[in-house]
Task: structure prediction
Amino acid sequence: MDAGVEIWDSLAICEYLSEQYLENKAWPSEVMEHARCGEICSEMHSGFQGIRADLPMNCRATRKLSEGEDTMREVRRIDELWSSALLDSGGPYLFVEFSIADCMFAPIVSRFTTYQLPPSCVSAL
Result:
C-alpha cells in the first residue's frame, strides 16, 4: 500500500515503483529494448504454469523432483530468454542496467536454486 492505494499485481507494482520512485528507469530507455523487456516481463507474468504448479516457491528448501516434460520445456524457454538477453546486454543484468525483467524473474532464479535446475553457461552469468 502506498499513499492509501493498494496495488496487488506484481507487474503493476513494478511499473508503479518505476514511475513513482525511479523516474521510470526500471525500464530500458532505448525503445526496442524497452519493448523486448516488456515482452519477457509479460511472458513471465502470464506464463510458465508448469513451473508454478510443479515447482512451488520455497526459499529455504533444496529439493530434487522429477519435473514433467511441460515444466522442463518451460525451463528451457526461460533459459533461452535469459541467454538471449544476456548475450545482447553483456550482463550482468538482462537489459544492461537492473530492470523490471530482473525483478520479474527473481522467483524463477530462486526455483532454479531450490530444485537444482542448472541454467546454461550463458544464463549462469
Observations:
- The two ends are 34 Å apart (CA to CA).
- Residues 69-89 form the longest helix (21 residues).
